[in-house]
Amino acid sequence: MIFDVLKPEEFSGEVDSPPFSTRIEYRENWLGDIHSSKILEILPQVRIKDEDSLDELKNRSKDSNWEGLIARKDSPYKSGRTKDMLKIKEFFDDEYVVTGLIMGPQRVILDGRELEEVMLSAVTIDHKGSQVQVGSGFTIDQRRHYYRNTNELIGKTISVQYFESTVDQHGKHSLRFPVFKGLYGEIREI
After folding, report:
1. Is residue 7 within 8 Å of 17, Cβ to Cβ?
2. Domains of the chain listed by start with CATH number
3. Helix (H, G, I), strand (E, B), or coil: what is residue 168?
4. Phi-psi region of 34 (alpha: psi -120 to 50; beta: other; left: phi over 0)
5. What is the pLDDT of residues 5-35, one digit of tens each?
6. How many CA atoms lie within 13 A of 51 on its CB side?
7. CB 100 within 8 Å of CB 123
8. 3-state secondary structure (DSSP) of residue 64
9. What is the pTM of this model?
Protein backbone atom coordinates (compact mmCIF):
# COMPACT_ATOMS: atom_id res chain seq x y z
CA MET A 1 0.00 0.00 0.00
CA ILE A 2 1.40 3.36 -1.00
CA PHE A 3 -0.24 6.17 0.93
CA ASP A 4 2.45 8.86 0.86
CA VAL A 5 5.71 9.73 -0.90
CA LEU A 6 8.68 11.28 0.90
CA LYS A 7 12.31 11.90 0.06
CA PRO A 8 14.77 10.37 2.58
CA GLU A 9 15.77 13.80 3.94
CA GLU A 10 12.09 14.70 4.44
CA PHE A 11 11.42 11.41 6.23
CA SER A 12 14.40 11.94 8.55
CA GLY A 13 13.36 15.52 9.29
CA GLU A 14 16.50 17.11 7.84
CA VAL A 15 14.30 19.25 5.57
CA ASP A 16 10.61 20.09 5.60
CA SER A 17 8.43 18.22 3.17
CA PRO A 18 5.76 19.89 1.08
CA PRO A 19 2.20 19.70 2.44
CA PHE A 20 0.32 16.41 2.20
CA SER A 21 -1.79 17.48 -0.82
CA THR A 22 1.36 18.31 -2.82
CA ARG A 23 2.93 14.96 -1.91
CA ILE A 24 -0.23 13.12 -3.01
CA GLU A 25 -0.26 15.01 -6.32
CA TYR A 26 3.41 14.10 -6.77
CA ARG A 27 2.62 10.46 -5.91
CA GLU A 28 -0.07 10.31 -8.61
CA ASN A 29 2.24 11.84 -11.25
CA TRP A 30 5.35 9.91 -10.26
CA LEU A 31 3.77 6.46 -9.99
CA GLY A 32 1.61 6.89 -13.06
CA ASP A 33 -0.45 3.86 -14.02
CA ILE A 34 0.43 1.47 -11.21
CA HIS A 35 -3.14 0.17 -11.03
CA SER A 36 -2.17 -2.91 -13.05
CA SER A 37 0.49 -3.92 -10.48
CA LYS A 38 -0.13 -7.12 -8.53
CA ILE A 39 2.33 -6.04 -5.83
CA LEU A 40 1.81 -2.31 -5.26
CA GLU A 41 -1.45 -0.54 -4.62
CA ILE A 42 -2.12 3.16 -4.19
CA LEU A 43 -4.29 3.92 -1.19
CA PRO A 44 -6.91 6.45 -2.29
CA GLN A 45 -6.88 9.76 -0.43
CA VAL A 46 -10.12 11.72 -0.09
CA ARG A 47 -10.39 15.37 0.92
CA ILE A 48 -12.95 15.93 3.67
CA LYS A 49 -14.81 19.08 2.66
CA ASP A 50 -17.46 19.24 5.36
CA GLU A 51 -19.26 17.23 8.03
CA ASP A 52 -21.49 15.52 5.45
CA SER A 53 -18.48 14.18 3.52
CA LEU A 54 -16.97 12.93 6.80
CA ASP A 55 -20.25 11.18 7.71
CA GLU A 56 -20.30 9.58 4.25
CA LEU A 57 -16.76 8.25 4.75
CA LYS A 58 -17.60 6.96 8.23
CA ASN A 59 -20.61 5.09 6.81
CA ARG A 60 -18.43 3.64 4.04
CA SER A 61 -15.89 2.55 6.64
CA LYS A 62 -18.59 0.82 8.68
CA ASP A 63 -20.20 -0.84 5.61
CA SER A 64 -16.77 -2.07 4.43
CA ASN A 65 -15.85 -3.42 7.90
CA TRP A 66 -12.82 -1.15 8.10
CA GLU A 67 -11.37 -0.56 11.54
CA GLY A 68 -11.69 3.18 11.04
CA LEU A 69 -10.34 6.18 9.19
CA ILE A 70 -7.30 8.44 9.46
CA ALA A 71 -7.92 12.17 9.04
CA ARG A 72 -4.85 14.14 8.15
CA LYS A 73 -4.06 17.86 8.11
CA ASP A 74 -2.65 19.25 4.88
CA SER A 75 0.72 19.87 6.48
CA PRO A 76 4.37 18.88 6.07
CA TYR A 77 5.36 15.38 7.22
CA LYS A 78 6.35 14.95 10.87
CA SER A 79 8.00 11.76 12.08
CA GLY A 80 6.69 9.97 15.15
CA ARG A 81 3.43 10.81 16.87
CA THR A 82 1.76 13.94 15.59
CA LYS A 83 -1.45 15.84 16.17
CA ASP A 84 -1.68 16.31 12.39
CA MET A 85 -3.18 12.82 12.05
CA LEU A 86 -6.34 11.72 13.82
CA LYS A 87 -7.78 8.20 14.11
CA ILE A 88 -11.53 8.12 13.62
CA LYS A 89 -13.13 4.98 15.03
CA GLU A 90 -16.65 4.22 16.12
CA PHE A 91 -16.71 3.02 19.73
CA PHE A 92 -19.49 1.66 21.90
CA ASP A 93 -20.16 2.07 25.62
CA ASP A 94 -21.86 -0.46 27.88
CA GLU A 95 -22.26 -1.02 31.59
CA TYR A 96 -20.87 -4.20 33.21
CA VAL A 97 -20.67 -5.63 36.73
CA VAL A 98 -17.11 -6.30 37.93
CA THR A 99 -16.83 -10.03 38.68
CA GLY A 100 -13.14 -10.18 39.56
CA LEU A 101 -9.96 -8.22 40.09
CA ILE A 102 -6.48 -9.04 38.85
CA MET A 103 -3.58 -7.63 40.83
CA GLY A 104 -0.02 -7.56 39.62
CA PRO A 105 3.11 -5.52 39.13
CA GLN A 106 2.83 -2.28 37.16
CA ARG A 107 5.72 -0.07 36.09
CA VAL A 108 5.64 3.38 37.63
CA ILE A 109 8.02 6.33 37.63
CA LEU A 110 8.90 7.56 41.12
CA ASP A 111 11.49 10.30 41.65
CA GLY A 112 12.69 9.82 38.08
CA ARG A 113 13.23 6.07 38.53
CA GLU A 114 11.20 3.25 37.02
CA LEU A 115 9.90 0.86 39.66
CA GLU A 116 7.46 -2.02 39.80
CA GLU A 117 4.56 -1.75 42.23
CA VAL A 118 1.81 -4.29 42.84
CA MET A 119 -1.61 -2.75 42.17
CA LEU A 120 -4.79 -3.36 40.17
CA SER A 121 -3.87 -4.69 36.72
CA ALA A 122 -7.34 -5.38 35.34
CA VAL A 123 -10.93 -6.12 36.22
CA THR A 124 -12.95 -9.05 34.96
CA ILE A 125 -16.46 -8.57 33.59
CA ASP A 126 -19.05 -10.95 32.21
CA HIS A 127 -19.76 -10.26 28.52
CA LYS A 128 -22.44 -12.56 27.06
CA GLY A 129 -21.38 -15.44 29.31
CA SER A 130 -17.63 -15.01 28.82
CA GLN A 131 -15.15 -13.52 31.27
CA VAL A 132 -13.38 -10.53 29.69
CA GLN A 133 -10.50 -8.56 31.20
CA VAL A 134 -10.47 -4.76 31.10
CA GLY A 135 -7.06 -3.32 31.98
CA SER A 136 -6.83 -0.05 30.07
CA GLY A 137 -8.30 3.24 31.22
CA PHE A 138 -7.36 3.18 34.91
CA THR A 139 -5.05 5.89 36.22
CA ILE A 140 -2.13 4.91 38.47
CA ASP A 141 -3.98 6.52 41.41
CA GLN A 142 -7.11 4.47 40.65
CA ARG A 143 -5.03 1.29 40.36
CA ARG A 144 -3.46 1.95 43.78
CA HIS A 145 -6.79 2.89 45.35
CA TYR A 146 -8.68 -0.19 44.13
CA TYR A 147 -5.76 -2.43 45.15
CA ARG A 148 -6.25 -1.21 48.73
CA ASN A 149 -10.07 -0.94 48.52
CA THR A 150 -11.23 -3.96 46.51
CA ASN A 151 -14.74 -3.74 47.98
CA GLU A 152 -15.26 -0.43 46.15
CA LEU A 153 -14.97 -2.18 42.77
CA ILE A 154 -15.93 -5.85 43.05
CA GLY A 155 -19.64 -6.32 42.34
CA LYS A 156 -19.98 -2.70 41.20
CA THR A 157 -21.13 -1.49 37.78
CA ILE A 158 -18.56 0.15 35.52
CA SER A 159 -18.77 1.79 32.12
CA VAL A 160 -16.60 0.15 29.43
CA GLN A 161 -15.87 1.59 26.00
CA TYR A 162 -14.93 -0.87 23.24
CA PHE A 163 -14.45 -1.03 19.48
CA GLU A 164 -16.50 -4.15 18.80
CA SER A 165 -17.87 -7.34 20.30
CA THR A 166 -16.28 -10.50 18.85
CA VAL A 167 -16.77 -14.27 18.96
CA ASP A 168 -13.85 -16.69 18.58
CA GLN A 169 -13.89 -20.09 16.83
CA HIS A 170 -15.00 -21.74 20.10
CA GLY A 171 -18.01 -19.44 20.52
CA LYS A 172 -16.38 -17.40 23.30
CA HIS A 173 -17.43 -13.74 23.32
CA SER A 174 -14.93 -10.93 23.86
CA LEU A 175 -14.43 -7.20 23.37
CA ARG A 176 -11.83 -5.50 21.16
CA PHE A 177 -9.98 -2.65 22.85
CA PRO A 178 -12.02 -2.52 26.08
CA VAL A 179 -11.29 0.59 28.17
CA PHE A 180 -12.53 1.43 31.68
CA LYS A 181 -14.38 4.76 31.51
CA GLY A 182 -15.72 5.07 35.04
CA LEU A 183 -17.48 3.58 38.01
CA TYR A 184 -21.26 3.85 37.68
CA GLY A 185 -22.60 6.60 39.92
CA GLU A 186 -19.30 8.50 40.05
CA ILE A 187 -18.53 11.72 38.22
CA ARG A 188 -16.52 10.67 35.17
CA GLU A 189 -13.51 12.54 33.83
CA ILE A 190 -13.88 13.58 30.21
Report:
1. yes
2. 8-88 (no CATH), 92-183 (2.40.50.140)
3. coil
4. alpha
5. 899 999 988 999 999 999 988 888 877 666 6
6. 0
7. yes
8. coil
9. 0.64
